[in-house]
Amino acid sequence: MRTVPGIMLMDYMPSILNPIAYITPLKQEFTVPMSFIKGRIGKLTTALVYACLYDSAVPVSQPYVYTTKYELARHFKIDIEVIKHYMNTLYDKNIIFIETPLKVSDERVRNQRQDGYAVVYRLTCQVKPVFDNTSLIQNIKFKAKDMNKKDKMSLVLLAYLKEVQKLTGNSDIEMYPADIAKDLNRDYRRITRTLNNMDKHGVIEWQRKKHVNNSLIRLK
Fold first, then answer.
1. Which pLDDT does position 147 carry in this prediction?
2. For the chain, how far is it from start to end, CA to CA, in angstroms?
3. How far, in Å, CA of 136 to CA of 18, rounded?
4. How many contiguous H segments (helices) and E segments (strands) does the chain have?
5. What is the CA radius of gyration of the chain?
6. Beta-strand runs (E) in 149-214
7. Given the DSSP bridges, would you call strands 21-22 and 109-110 parallel, antiparallel or unpaired?
8. Are 141 and 51 in contact (CB under 8 A)?
9. CA distance 28 to 144
10. If both were cysteines, with which of 9, 19, 93, 153 could 100 make a disulfide (CB 3.0 to 4.6 Å apart)?
11. Which has the closest alpha carbon to 177: 161, 162, 166, 165?
12. Model confidence over 162-190: pLDDT tens digits?
């Protein structure tokens, strides 16, 4: 066992059966299981980063990706120091397992896009989606290009409402904000603030009904 600043790593050699480490292409649009958001995998952005890793991973019993911190920063358009923080958070919570490094100049690494000093990590995804029969929606879609936007809660909520729209076949959605908050495992007041902000900016039309808790939400 040895330590790299901020990250504990185990020595890793590519499998004898698969001796070449191919840098894993990360998806531009990826599936986010609601259980990742509800499970509080760090903050919302951390959960979204993990969802992209999981959806892009080699689909084996223990999914994994080969990647570099530079590749993650480029893909999400997030500062590399912030990416390091997310990786450390995921590692500390046992969400991912980080195995070390091969330099991209190593003959065992392919699809190299960085200089020869970049380090390729094998990130094993430890947490898998959990089906929740109490939830209306099990998965949403999110775009990597939106990862560096400030108000990701609005984007997640919009993606959620679009899935509800697909399920109901109707652009007018009548729901209790409390039910939305429960499905997203977020504070009720945060959900109502987000809905209000989306209405204010013309993303949705939110028709709040007096004296009752349910609302009509119309997607535009």
1. 94
2. 54
3. 40
4. 7, 12
5. 20
6. 172-175, 204-208
7. parallel
8. no
9. 5
10. 9
11. 161
12. 999 999 898 888 888 888 999 999 999 99
